[in-house]
Amino acid sequence: MPLKPLSRGSQCQNTKEKMLSEFFIFGLVMTSAITGGECEVTEVFAQEGSEAFLSCKCDPSSPNPASVIWTKHDKGTVWRKTQSGLQFWGTSWLHKKTPRVQCPHYRFERRDYSLQINSVKLEDAGLFSCRVGTADGVIKHQVMLRIIQVSISPSAPIWDSTFSISCDVTPPAEGATVQWTLNNISSIEAIKTLQVAPTKSLVSGRASARLEGNWTCVVGYKGEVGRASVTLAMKGIIQPPKDDTKVYAALGSAATLPCVFSPGLIPSSSAWEKLESGFPFKAATSPLPASFSQPTPSSQPSVDKSAILTEVRSEDEGTYRCSGTVEGRQLTRNLHLVVAKVVNLANKAGSVTMSCHLSDTSEVTRYEWVHQDFDQSGNLTVVSIHKGKDLTVAKKGDDKGEWTCRFYGKQGILGNVTHHMAVMSSLGGQNSGVSHKAAAAGVLSILLIVLLLVLVQMCRNHRRRKRILQYPTLETIVHRISNEREEREKNREKK
Protein backbone atom coordinates (compact mmCIF):
# COMPACT_ATOMS: atom_id res chain seq x y z
CA MET A 1 0.00 0.00 0.00
CA PRO A 2 1.40 3.46 -0.84
CA LEU A 3 2.76 5.45 2.07
CA LYS A 4 2.59 9.18 2.50
CA PRO A 5 5.13 11.02 4.66
CA LEU A 6 4.39 14.20 6.54
CA SER A 7 6.89 17.03 6.30
CA ARG A 8 9.21 17.25 9.26
CA GLY A 9 11.72 20.02 8.80
CA SER A 10 14.73 19.43 6.64
CA GLN A 11 14.44 15.63 7.02
CA CYS A 12 11.75 15.61 4.34
CA GLN A 13 14.44 16.60 1.79
CA ASN A 14 16.24 13.27 1.99
CA THR A 15 17.29 11.78 -1.31
CA LYS A 16 15.43 9.01 -3.01
CA GLU A 17 18.43 6.73 -2.63
CA LYS A 18 18.49 7.18 1.14
CA MET A 19 14.78 6.43 1.36
CA LEU A 20 15.15 3.25 -0.64
CA SER A 21 18.08 2.21 1.53
CA GLU A 22 16.06 2.73 4.71
CA PHE A 23 13.14 0.79 3.26
CA PHE A 24 15.48 -2.10 2.45
CA ILE A 25 17.11 -2.13 5.87
CA PHE A 26 13.75 -1.80 7.62
CA GLY A 27 12.33 -4.70 5.63
CA LEU A 28 15.25 -6.89 6.59
CA VAL A 29 14.79 -6.04 10.22
CA MET A 30 11.07 -6.70 10.16
CA THR A 31 11.34 -10.02 8.37
CA SER A 32 14.40 -11.34 10.14
CA ALA A 33 14.18 -14.22 12.53
CA ILE A 34 16.24 -12.50 15.15
CA THR A 35 15.12 -13.64 18.54
CA GLY A 36 13.38 -11.16 20.77
CA GLY A 37 10.42 -10.63 23.10
CA GLU A 38 6.78 -10.74 22.04
CA CYS A 39 3.92 -8.89 23.80
CA GLU A 40 0.64 -10.66 24.36
CA VAL A 41 -2.26 -10.42 21.91
CA THR A 42 -5.20 -8.34 23.11
CA GLU A 43 -8.82 -7.74 22.19
CA VAL A 44 -10.02 -4.15 21.80
CA PHE A 45 -13.63 -2.96 21.43
CA ALA A 46 -14.61 0.47 20.15
CA GLN A 47 -17.88 2.12 19.21
CA GLU A 48 -18.20 3.34 15.66
CA GLY A 49 -17.26 7.01 15.49
CA SER A 50 -15.33 7.01 18.77
CA GLU A 51 -11.60 6.67 19.53
CA ALA A 52 -9.75 3.35 19.73
CA PHE A 53 -6.48 2.65 21.52
CA LEU A 54 -4.51 -0.35 20.26
CA SER A 55 -2.06 -1.41 22.95
CA CYS A 56 1.57 -2.19 22.21
CA LYS A 57 3.52 -2.16 25.48
CA CYS A 58 6.85 -3.91 25.87
CA ASP A 59 9.31 -4.64 28.64
CA PRO A 60 10.64 -1.34 30.07
CA SER A 61 14.13 -2.87 30.09
CA SER A 62 14.12 -3.47 26.32
CA PRO A 63 16.53 -1.32 24.20
CA ASN A 64 15.41 1.85 22.51
CA PRO A 65 13.62 1.04 19.26
CA ALA A 66 15.28 1.63 15.95
CA SER A 67 11.93 1.59 14.19
CA VAL A 68 8.22 1.05 14.86
CA ILE A 69 5.59 -0.05 12.35
CA TRP A 70 1.86 -0.69 12.61
CA THR A 71 0.18 -2.74 9.88
CA LYS A 72 -3.30 -4.09 9.18
CA HIS A 73 -3.63 -7.50 7.63
CA ASP A 74 -5.80 -6.31 4.71
CA LYS A 75 -4.57 -2.71 4.33
CA GLY A 76 -0.83 -2.92 4.70
CA THR A 77 1.04 -0.19 6.56
CA VAL A 78 -0.94 2.06 8.91
CA TRP A 79 1.88 4.07 10.46
CA ARG A 80 5.62 3.73 10.86
CA LYS A 81 8.62 5.59 12.21
CA THR A 82 12.09 4.96 10.84
CA GLN A 83 15.39 5.12 12.67
CA SER A 84 15.99 8.61 11.28
CA GLY A 85 12.75 9.85 12.91
CA LEU A 86 10.62 10.20 9.79
CA GLN A 87 6.95 9.22 10.09
CA PHE A 88 4.83 7.74 7.33
CA TRP A 89 1.08 7.11 7.05
CA GLY A 90 -0.89 4.89 4.75
CA THR A 91 -3.03 6.95 2.38
CA SER A 92 -6.24 5.27 3.57
CA TRP A 93 -5.55 6.59 7.10
CA LEU A 94 -5.44 10.21 6.03
CA HIS A 95 -8.51 12.45 6.02
CA LYS A 96 -8.03 15.64 4.02
CA LYS A 97 -4.27 15.29 4.50
CA THR A 98 -4.81 14.96 8.26
CA PRO A 99 -3.91 11.55 9.75
CA ARG A 100 -6.59 9.66 11.67
CA VAL A 101 -3.94 7.64 13.54
CA GLN A 102 -1.06 8.65 15.76
CA CYS A 103 1.50 7.08 18.03
CA PRO A 104 2.52 9.59 20.75
CA HIS A 105 6.32 9.78 21.03
CA TYR A 106 6.32 10.92 24.65
CA ARG A 107 5.28 7.39 25.61
CA PHE A 108 8.24 5.75 23.88
CA GLU A 109 10.44 6.27 26.94
CA ARG A 110 8.04 3.98 28.84
CA ARG A 111 8.24 1.47 25.94
CA ASP A 112 4.60 2.22 25.09
CA TYR A 113 4.00 2.22 21.31
CA SER A 114 0.20 2.12 21.40
CA LEU A 115 -1.70 3.39 18.38
CA GLN A 116 -4.60 5.84 18.66
CA ILE A 117 -7.30 5.81 15.95
CA ASN A 118 -9.67 8.76 15.79
CA SER A 119 -13.22 8.59 14.40
CA VAL A 120 -13.25 4.82 14.07
CA LYS A 121 -14.96 3.48 10.94
CA LEU A 122 -16.54 0.09 10.39
CA GLU A 123 -13.83 -0.82 7.83
CA ASP A 124 -11.17 -0.22 10.51
CA ALA A 125 -12.19 -3.48 12.22
CA GLY A 126 -9.72 -6.32 11.91
CA LEU A 127 -6.31 -7.61 12.97
CA PHE A 128 -3.48 -5.11 13.55
CA SER A 129 0.20 -5.87 14.09
CA CYS A 130 2.75 -3.80 15.96
CA ARG A 131 6.45 -4.50 15.20
CA VAL A 132 9.20 -2.83 17.19
CA GLY A 133 12.72 -3.18 15.83
CA THR A 134 15.54 -2.89 18.35
CA ALA A 135 19.22 -3.79 18.43
CA ASP A 136 18.28 -7.09 20.10
CA GLY A 137 15.60 -8.14 17.66
CA VAL A 138 11.98 -7.61 16.67
CA ILE A 139 9.12 -7.39 19.15
CA LYS A 140 5.75 -8.25 17.70
CA HIS A 141 2.31 -7.52 19.11
CA GLN A 142 -1.11 -8.28 17.60
CA VAL A 143 -4.41 -6.52 18.37
CA MET A 144 -7.89 -7.47 17.20
CA LEU A 145 -10.05 -4.37 16.87
CA ARG A 146 -13.78 -5.11 16.98
CA ILE A 147 -16.25 -2.34 16.15
CA ILE A 148 -19.63 -2.19 17.94
CA GLN A 149 -22.51 -0.62 16.04
CA VAL A 150 -25.79 0.40 17.70
CA SER A 151 -28.70 1.92 15.80
CA ILE A 152 -32.37 2.77 16.37
CA SER A 153 -35.17 2.24 13.87
CA PRO A 154 -36.88 4.61 13.44
CA SER A 155 -34.36 7.11 14.75
CA ALA A 156 -37.02 9.08 16.68
CA PRO A 157 -40.20 7.02 17.15
CA ILE A 158 -43.52 8.66 17.98
CA TRP A 159 -45.05 7.91 21.37
CA ASP A 160 -46.78 4.53 21.55
CA SER A 161 -45.33 3.37 18.21
CA THR A 162 -43.00 0.35 17.84
CA PHE A 163 -39.24 0.70 17.64
CA SER A 164 -36.15 -1.52 17.60
CA ILE A 165 -32.50 -1.11 18.63
CA SER A 166 -29.80 -3.34 17.14
CA CYS A 167 -26.27 -4.11 18.32
CA ASP A 168 -23.74 -5.65 15.92
CA VAL A 169 -20.05 -6.55 16.45
CA THR A 170 -17.57 -6.59 13.55
CA PRO A 171 -15.76 -8.94 13.08
CA PRO A 172 -18.02 -11.42 14.90
CA ALA A 173 -16.68 -13.00 18.09
CA GLU A 174 -17.84 -16.56 18.61
CA GLY A 175 -18.86 -17.16 22.20
CA ALA A 176 -19.23 -13.48 23.08
CA THR A 177 -22.03 -12.37 25.41
CA VAL A 178 -24.33 -9.45 24.61
CA GLN A 179 -26.41 -7.63 27.22
CA TRP A 180 -28.51 -4.45 27.28
CA THR A 181 -28.81 -1.69 29.86
CA LEU A 182 -31.12 1.32 29.95
CA ASN A 183 -29.82 4.33 31.87
CA ASN A 184 -27.26 2.03 33.54
CA ILE A 185 -30.00 -0.36 34.73
CA SER A 186 -29.66 -3.90 33.42
CA SER A 187 -33.18 -5.08 34.27
CA ILE A 188 -35.47 -4.03 31.42
CA GLU A 189 -39.08 -5.15 31.35
CA ALA A 190 -41.70 -5.12 28.59
CA ILE A 191 -39.16 -5.40 25.76
CA LYS A 192 -38.37 -8.25 23.40
CA THR A 193 -34.76 -9.35 22.94
CA LEU A 194 -33.78 -11.32 19.85
CA GLN A 195 -30.36 -12.84 19.20
CA VAL A 196 -30.08 -12.47 15.41
CA ALA A 197 -26.45 -13.72 15.20
CA PRO A 198 -23.77 -14.77 17.69
CA THR A 199 -22.80 -11.13 18.26
CA LYS A 200 -25.86 -9.34 16.92
CA SER A 201 -28.72 -8.53 19.26
CA LEU A 202 -32.02 -6.79 18.64
CA VAL A 203 -34.46 -5.32 21.16
CA SER A 204 -37.91 -4.04 20.31
CA GLY A 205 -40.78 -2.48 22.18
CA ARG A 206 -43.46 0.20 22.16
CA ALA A 207 -42.30 3.78 22.70
CA SER A 208 -43.11 5.07 26.16
CA ALA A 209 -41.58 7.41 28.71
CA ARG A 210 -39.97 4.63 30.77
CA LEU A 211 -38.07 3.31 27.73
CA GLU A 212 -36.61 6.70 26.83
CA GLY A 213 -32.97 7.36 27.62
CA ASN A 214 -29.49 5.95 27.09
CA TRP A 215 -29.40 2.38 25.74
CA THR A 216 -26.06 0.55 26.05
CA CYS A 217 -24.99 -2.69 24.37
CA VAL A 218 -22.43 -4.50 26.56
CA VAL A 219 -20.27 -7.10 24.81
CA GLY A 220 -18.04 -9.49 26.77
CA TYR A 221 -15.31 -11.62 25.13
CA LYS A 222 -12.15 -13.25 26.51
CA GLY A 223 -12.21 -11.14 29.63
CA GLU A 224 -12.59 -7.88 27.71
CA VAL A 225 -15.74 -5.74 27.79
CA GLY A 226 -16.89 -3.36 25.09
CA ARG A 227 -19.75 -0.86 25.27
CA ALA A 228 -21.65 1.16 22.72
CA SER A 229 -24.53 3.50 23.52
CA VAL A 230 -27.31 5.28 21.71
CA THR A 231 -29.92 7.73 23.01
CA LEU A 232 -33.59 6.98 22.41
CA ALA A 233 -35.45 10.28 22.11
CA MET A 234 -39.10 9.98 21.21
CA LYS A 235 -41.32 12.44 19.36
CA GLY A 236 -44.51 13.66 20.92
CA ILE A 237 -45.46 16.19 23.58
CA ILE A 238 -42.21 17.43 25.11
CA GLN A 239 -43.73 20.02 27.49
CA PRO A 240 -44.76 18.98 30.04
CA PRO A 241 -42.15 16.19 29.85
CA LYS A 242 -44.35 13.58 31.55
CA ASP A 243 -47.89 12.88 32.66
CA ASP A 244 -49.19 14.32 35.94
CA THR A 245 -46.71 17.19 35.88
CA LYS A 246 -47.79 19.82 38.43
CA VAL A 247 -48.18 23.49 37.54
CA TYR A 248 -48.26 25.88 40.54
CA ALA A 249 -50.12 29.20 40.41
CA ALA A 250 -51.06 31.81 43.03
CA LEU A 251 -54.71 32.65 43.59
CA GLY A 252 -55.76 35.55 41.37
CA SER A 253 -52.66 35.39 39.18
CA ALA A 254 -52.27 34.23 35.57
CA ALA A 255 -51.07 30.69 34.82
CA THR A 256 -49.80 28.93 31.70
CA LEU A 257 -50.70 25.30 31.04
CA PRO A 258 -47.89 24.06 28.76
CA CYS A 259 -48.50 21.78 25.79
CA VAL A 260 -45.61 21.80 23.30
CA PHE A 261 -44.99 19.16 20.63
CA SER A 262 -41.60 18.05 19.28
CA PRO A 263 -40.01 20.35 16.67
CA GLY A 264 -41.53 19.66 13.28
CA LEU A 265 -44.31 17.55 14.79
CA ILE A 266 -47.35 19.77 14.16
CA PRO A 267 -50.66 18.18 15.22
CA SER A 268 -53.51 18.21 12.73
CA SER A 269 -55.95 18.95 15.56
CA SER A 270 -55.60 19.79 19.24
CA ALA A 271 -57.92 20.18 22.22
CA TRP A 272 -57.99 20.89 25.97
CA GLU A 273 -60.18 19.18 28.57
CA LYS A 274 -60.62 19.44 32.32
CA LEU A 275 -60.97 15.95 33.75
CA GLU A 276 -63.58 15.22 36.34
CA SER A 277 -62.11 14.90 39.80
CA GLY A 278 -61.48 11.26 40.72
CA PHE A 279 -61.64 10.00 37.13
CA PRO A 280 -58.33 10.92 35.45
CA PHE A 281 -58.74 8.33 32.68
CA LYS A 282 -62.35 9.16 31.87
CA ALA A 283 -63.58 11.70 29.34
CA ALA A 284 -63.79 15.18 30.85
CA THR A 285 -67.16 16.28 32.15
CA SER A 286 -66.12 19.36 34.12
CA PRO A 287 -66.39 22.67 32.22
CA LEU A 288 -63.24 24.64 31.52
CA PRO A 289 -62.66 27.69 33.79
CA ALA A 290 -64.18 31.03 32.82
CA SER A 291 -60.72 32.61 32.39
CA PHE A 292 -59.42 29.68 30.30
CA SER A 293 -57.97 30.85 26.98
CA GLN A 294 -57.12 28.26 24.31
CA PRO A 295 -54.57 28.96 21.57
CA THR A 296 -56.17 30.67 18.58
CA PRO A 297 -55.70 29.05 15.15
CA SER A 298 -53.22 30.87 12.94
CA SER A 299 -52.10 30.71 9.34
CA GLN A 300 -48.67 29.46 10.52
CA PRO A 301 -48.92 25.97 12.08
CA SER A 302 -47.32 25.86 15.52
CA VAL A 303 -46.03 23.12 17.80
CA ASP A 304 -47.06 25.20 20.85
CA LYS A 305 -50.64 24.46 21.94
CA SER A 306 -50.31 25.87 25.46
CA ALA A 307 -53.33 27.43 27.19
CA ILE A 308 -53.61 30.36 29.63
CA LEU A 309 -55.69 31.04 32.71
CA THR A 310 -55.89 34.83 33.01
CA GLU A 311 -57.08 34.77 36.65
CA VAL A 312 -56.79 31.60 38.71
CA ARG A 313 -59.61 30.77 41.12
CA SER A 314 -59.70 28.16 43.87
CA GLU A 315 -62.13 25.99 41.92
CA ASP A 316 -59.78 25.96 38.89
CA GLU A 317 -57.42 23.46 40.53
CA GLY A 318 -57.50 19.96 39.08
CA THR A 319 -56.30 17.82 36.18
CA TYR A 320 -56.22 19.13 32.61
CA ARG A 321 -55.56 17.13 29.45
CA CYS A 322 -53.98 18.37 26.22
CA SER A 323 -54.37 16.22 23.11
CA GLY A 324 -53.34 16.35 19.48
CA THR A 325 -53.42 14.08 16.43
CA VAL A 326 -50.11 13.33 14.68
CA GLU A 327 -49.83 10.91 11.74
CA GLY A 328 -53.18 9.42 12.64
CA ARG A 329 -52.14 8.80 16.26
CA GLN A 330 -53.63 10.75 19.16
CA LEU A 331 -51.08 12.00 21.68
CA THR A 332 -52.17 13.17 25.13
CA ARG A 333 -50.57 14.68 28.20
CA ASN A 334 -52.13 15.23 31.63
CA LEU A 335 -51.04 18.00 33.98
CA HIS A 336 -52.31 19.08 37.40
CA LEU A 337 -52.94 22.71 38.34
CA VAL A 338 -52.12 23.43 41.99
CA VAL A 339 -53.55 26.65 43.46
CA ALA A 340 -51.59 28.44 46.21
CA LYS A 341 -53.03 31.09 48.54
CA VAL A 342 -52.44 32.73 51.93
CA VAL A 343 -55.14 32.03 54.52
CA ASN A 344 -55.75 33.79 57.86
CA LEU A 345 -55.61 31.23 60.69
CA ALA A 346 -55.94 33.58 63.68
CA ASN A 347 -56.65 37.30 64.01
CA LYS A 348 -55.87 38.80 67.41
CA ALA A 349 -55.78 42.38 68.60
CA GLY A 350 -52.12 43.00 67.82
CA SER A 351 -51.10 40.15 65.51
CA VAL A 352 -52.27 37.93 62.70
CA THR A 353 -51.27 34.32 61.87
CA MET A 354 -50.95 33.47 58.18
CA SER A 355 -50.62 30.05 56.55
CA CYS A 356 -49.39 29.04 53.11
CA HIS A 357 -52.12 26.81 51.69
CA LEU A 358 -51.77 24.63 48.55
CA SER A 359 -54.45 22.47 46.98
CA ASP A 360 -51.83 19.69 46.54
CA THR A 361 -48.77 19.37 48.80
CA SER A 362 -47.47 15.98 47.59
CA GLU A 363 -44.28 17.49 46.10
CA VAL A 364 -43.63 20.16 48.75
CA THR A 365 -40.72 19.54 51.12
CA ARG A 366 -40.40 22.93 52.89
CA TYR A 367 -41.83 26.45 53.14
CA GLU A 368 -40.16 29.83 53.47
CA TRP A 369 -41.62 33.29 54.23
CA VAL A 370 -39.78 36.30 52.79
CA HIS A 371 -40.54 39.78 54.17
CA GLN A 372 -39.98 42.60 51.70
CA ASP A 373 -40.48 46.36 52.12
CA PHE A 374 -39.41 49.59 50.47
CA ASP A 375 -36.19 51.22 51.60
CA GLN A 376 -35.43 54.95 51.68
CA SER A 377 -34.62 54.90 47.95
CA GLY A 378 -37.98 53.37 47.11
CA ASN A 379 -36.57 49.97 46.17
CA LEU A 380 -38.18 46.75 47.35
CA THR A 381 -35.65 44.85 49.50
CA VAL A 382 -35.66 41.69 51.59
CA VAL A 383 -36.08 42.50 55.28
CA SER A 384 -36.19 39.01 56.82
CA ILE A 385 -36.71 35.33 56.04
CA HIS A 386 -38.65 32.85 58.20
CA LYS A 387 -38.97 29.07 57.90
CA GLY A 388 -42.18 27.10 58.18
CA LYS A 389 -45.66 26.90 56.70
CA ASP A 390 -47.35 29.21 59.24
CA LEU A 391 -46.26 32.71 60.26
CA THR A 392 -47.40 35.13 63.00
CA VAL A 393 -46.70 38.83 62.45
CA ALA A 394 -47.71 42.12 64.08
CA LYS A 395 -50.34 44.27 62.41
CA LYS A 396 -48.33 47.42 62.98
CA GLY A 397 -44.66 48.30 63.02
CA ASP A 398 -41.79 46.65 61.16
CA ASP A 399 -43.87 43.63 60.06
CA LYS A 400 -45.91 45.70 57.61
CA GLY A 401 -45.13 45.36 53.91
CA GLU A 402 -45.06 42.49 51.46
CA TRP A 403 -44.87 38.86 52.62
CA THR A 404 -44.12 36.09 50.11
CA CYS A 405 -44.47 32.39 50.84
CA ARG A 406 -42.09 30.26 48.79
CA PHE A 407 -42.55 26.50 48.64
CA TYR A 408 -39.83 24.07 47.58
CA GLY A 409 -39.56 20.50 46.30
CA LYS A 410 -36.67 18.08 45.84
CA GLN A 411 -35.53 19.85 42.65
CA GLY A 412 -35.78 23.40 44.03
CA ILE A 413 -38.45 26.11 44.20
CA LEU A 414 -41.90 25.13 42.96
CA GLY A 415 -43.67 28.48 43.22
CA ASN A 416 -44.70 31.33 45.53
CA VAL A 417 -47.69 33.39 46.65
CA THR A 418 -47.52 37.00 47.88
CA HIS A 419 -49.69 38.95 50.32
CA HIS A 420 -49.54 42.56 51.52
CA MET A 421 -49.67 43.15 55.26
CA ALA A 422 -51.43 46.51 54.89
CA VAL A 423 -54.39 44.82 53.23
CA MET A 424 -54.60 42.17 55.92
CA SER A 425 -54.48 44.78 58.70
CA SER A 426 -57.43 46.72 57.30
CA LEU A 427 -59.38 43.51 56.91
CA GLY A 428 -58.52 42.41 60.43
CA GLY A 429 -59.82 45.63 62.06
CA GLN A 430 -63.00 45.78 60.04
CA ASN A 431 -65.15 43.64 62.35
CA SER A 432 -64.08 45.38 65.56
CA GLY A 433 -65.09 48.85 64.25
CA VAL A 434 -68.39 47.97 62.61
CA SER A 435 -70.63 48.96 65.58
CA HIS A 436 -68.93 52.34 66.09
CA LYS A 437 -69.20 53.20 62.42
CA ALA A 438 -72.90 52.23 62.35
CA ALA A 439 -73.72 54.42 65.39
CA ALA A 440 -71.88 57.39 63.95
CA ALA A 441 -73.71 56.98 60.66
CA GLY A 442 -77.11 56.94 62.47
CA VAL A 443 -76.46 60.16 64.44
CA LEU A 444 -75.24 61.91 61.33
CA SER A 445 -78.39 60.92 59.44
CA ILE A 446 -80.71 62.37 62.18
CA LEU A 447 -78.81 65.67 62.23
CA LEU A 448 -79.09 65.99 58.49
CA ILE A 449 -82.89 65.41 58.63
CA VAL A 450 -83.42 68.05 61.39
CA LEU A 451 -81.32 70.57 59.50
CA LEU A 452 -83.31 69.92 56.36
CA LEU A 453 -86.65 70.52 58.17
CA VAL A 454 -85.41 73.80 59.68
CA LEU A 455 -84.33 75.03 56.29
CA VAL A 456 -87.71 74.16 54.76
CA GLN A 457 -89.62 76.05 57.51
CA MET A 458 -87.40 79.10 57.18
CA CYS A 459 -87.98 79.13 53.48
CA ARG A 460 -91.78 78.98 53.91
CA ASN A 461 -91.82 81.87 56.42
CA HIS A 462 -89.73 83.99 54.16
CA ARG A 463 -92.02 83.44 51.22
CA ARG A 464 -95.15 84.31 53.25
CA ARG A 465 -93.67 87.58 54.48
CA LYS A 466 -92.71 88.47 51.00
CA ARG A 467 -96.28 88.04 49.76
CA ILE A 468 -97.79 90.26 52.55
CA LEU A 469 -95.32 93.13 52.05
CA GLN A 470 -96.45 93.38 48.46
CA TYR A 471 -99.97 94.78 49.67
CA PRO A 472 -99.43 97.42 52.46
CA THR A 473 -103.09 98.87 52.25
CA LEU A 474 -104.55 95.46 52.75
CA GLU A 475 -102.31 95.00 55.76
CA THR A 476 -103.62 98.32 57.29
CA ILE A 477 -107.27 97.34 56.76
CA VAL A 478 -106.70 93.97 58.30
CA HIS A 479 -104.98 95.59 61.26
CA ARG A 480 -107.82 98.16 61.81
CA ILE A 481 -110.55 95.56 61.62
CA SER A 482 -108.69 93.51 64.16
CA ASN A 483 -108.44 96.48 66.54
CA GLU A 484 -112.17 97.36 66.24
CA ARG A 485 -113.09 93.77 66.98
CA GLU A 486 -111.00 93.84 70.12
CA GLU A 487 -112.70 97.14 71.28
CA ARG A 488 -116.21 95.75 70.81
CA GLU A 489 -115.38 92.67 72.81
CA LYS A 490 -114.03 94.83 75.69
CA ASN A 491 -117.23 96.95 75.76
CA ARG A 492 -119.48 93.90 76.00
CA GLU A 493 -117.54 92.66 78.95
CA LYS A 494 -118.02 96.02 80.81
CA LYS A 495 -121.78 95.96 80.33
TrEMBL record:
Alphabetically ordered keywords of this record: Membrane, Transmembrane, Transmembrane helix
GO biological process, one term: positive regulation of ERK1 and ERK2 cascade
Residue intervals of the Ig-like domain: 46-146, 161-233, 240-332, 351-406
InterPro entries recorded: Ig-like_dom, Ig-like_dom_sf, Ig-like_fold, Ig_sub, Ig_V-set
Sequence intervals crossing the membrane: 438-459
UniProt keyword Membrane present: yes
Any GO CC annotation of this UniProt entry: membrane raft
SUPFAM superfamilies per UniProt: Immunoglobulin
GO terms for MF: MHC class II protein binding; protein tyrosine kinase binding
Domain of life: Eukaryota
Protein name: Ig-like domain-containing protein
Organism name: Takifugu rubripes (Japanese pufferfish)
